[in-house]
Specification:
This protein is 35% helix and 18% strand. By secondary structure, it is of the alpha/beta class. Strands 3-2-1-6-7-8-9 form a seven-stranded parallel beta sheet, sandwiched between helices. Strands 12-11-10-13-14-15 form a six-stranded parallel beta sheet, sandwiched between helices. It has a two-stranded antiparallel sheet with strand order 4-5.
Length: 388
């Protein structure tokens, strides 16, 4: 597919997303998309600021305040929510007059955009990042009914994963010709290396290999089971490694206390929150990336680690597990099984020679997934939507 060569001149695109609070990773892609299409503007209720290298690359409109209410609790995955989104999005979009709207998710804003479509004639592309149980809501007939209605009137769909495509086509009954599945959330290496806060990070005093975890310290990220795997290694007399934990969240104090009580301070190092532009230093100076999530629709941090040539240990419950070739660039595991995690960690601890070869394979697998290629992909999809 390459519709972008025939794109309409003077096209305007709106990127509508209820929250971009953690949307650092999409900014390099949007920066490159802005180079392809004449005009793109972002509409969101939560904005984290520009990542290094993307400053003022496109206009950002902050629309109202983002609110949500919880409608269900789960110990293992995403909380189920209803987003309370401001009606102010309507006059903003009517004033901007986009020909194409990319709208993320199947929210109230998606409904607004689709309801106005007969009047405005804009084309609507729904972004569905990926599939997971608490995001898909497959067990909720009401949600599925409303989503099918919205899906019927969209012009195209974009998703990172084959799992996302299967959900859209099998459960929401979307025509396969309208669904474009390819990783569009792609990291930019330079954006991860822009900060000088941790330049020349020295991990020489840490026992190698060094495993790296990056994510919120909350139950969904599976860190509890990873630490239990480290305790199993300790009990086996396996101490020739280090685990670095980057992130903050509700569980941090509890987990740090757990580590101290079991005498694992020399093996496990908590770094807390690290700015996005400083993460590259950690990727460069560690050996293996581990992603033990209990539920993630994608998992951008895995692609970031691959970009830096790291082997990956990835949970089978992450959408991004599709990027792992078991035995070639890493392993896929059950995050609820500390014994399995410990066994896979030992594969690297006992055979450190595989680290470089697997890391090289990661770089090979990610090489053609760049922000530039992702931007061209999105431009192709918008051209498809305009021409069909």
């Amino acid at each position: 597919m390459n519709y972008v060569k025939n794109k309409v001149k003077n096209i305007t695109i709106a990127w509508v997303s209820p929250s971009m609070k953690l949307g650092f990773y999409i900014q390099p892609v949007l920066r490159n998309l802005d180079k392809i299409v004449p005009k793109i503007e972002i509409f969101t209720s939560e904005w984290p600021g520009f990542v290094p290298g993307c400053e003022d690359a496109f206009k950002v409109n902050i629309v109202g305040k983002y609110k949500e209410i919880s409608v269900g609790k789960t110990n293992a995955g995403y909380k189920r929510i209803i987003q309370l989104l401001p009606l102010e999005i309507i006059p903003h979009l009517l004033k901007f007059k986009p020909q194409v709207i990319f709208v993320t998710g199947l929210s109230l804003w998606t409904l607004f955009v689709l309801m106005l479509k007969p009047l405005t004639k804009w084309r609507v592309i729904i972004i569905y990042s990926g599939s997971s149980p608490n995001i898909d809501m497959s067990d909720s007939p009401v949600r599925i009914f409303s989503r099918r209605l919205m899906a019927e009137y969209a012009d195209a769909f974009v998703t990172n994963s084959q799992g996302g495509k299967a959900y859209l086509t099998n459960l929401l009954k979307v025509d396969q010709a309208k669904v474009f599945a390819r990783p569009y959330q792609i990291p930019d290496k330079q954006a991860l290396l822009q900060s000088s806060a941790v330049n020349d990070l020295d991990l020489s005093n840490n026992q190698h290999p060094v495993f790296l975890f990056i994510g919120q310290t909350i139950h969904r990220k599976g860190l509890t089971f990873l630490l239990e795997a480290c305790l199993l290694l300790e009990n086996q007399g396996c101490r020739d490694y280090t685990l670095i934990v980057i992130g903050d969240g509700a569980q941090r104090q509890e987990l740090e206390s757990w580590i101290r009580q079991r005498g694992l301070e020399n093996r496990i190092r908590f770094e807390g929150w690290v700015n996005y532009g400083s993460l590259g230093e950690y990727f460069q100076n560690t050996d293996i990336f581990i992603f033990p999530t209990l539920e993630d629709i994608w998992g951008m941090v895995v692609l970031e680690a691959m970009l830096f040539g790291k082997p990956i240990m990835c949970s089978k419950y992450a959408g991004v597990s599709e990027m792992i070739s078991p035995g070639d660039n890493g392993y896929i595991f059950d995050p609820c099984n500390p014994t399995e995690i410990a066994q896979l960690m030992r594969c690297f601890i006992d055979n450190p020679s595989v680290i470089s070869s697997m890391g090289y394979k990661s770089q090979e697998l990610i090489a053609h997934h760049t922000p530039e290629a992702a931007a061209e992909f999105l431009a192709d999809v918008q051209s498809f939507a305009l021409n069909h």
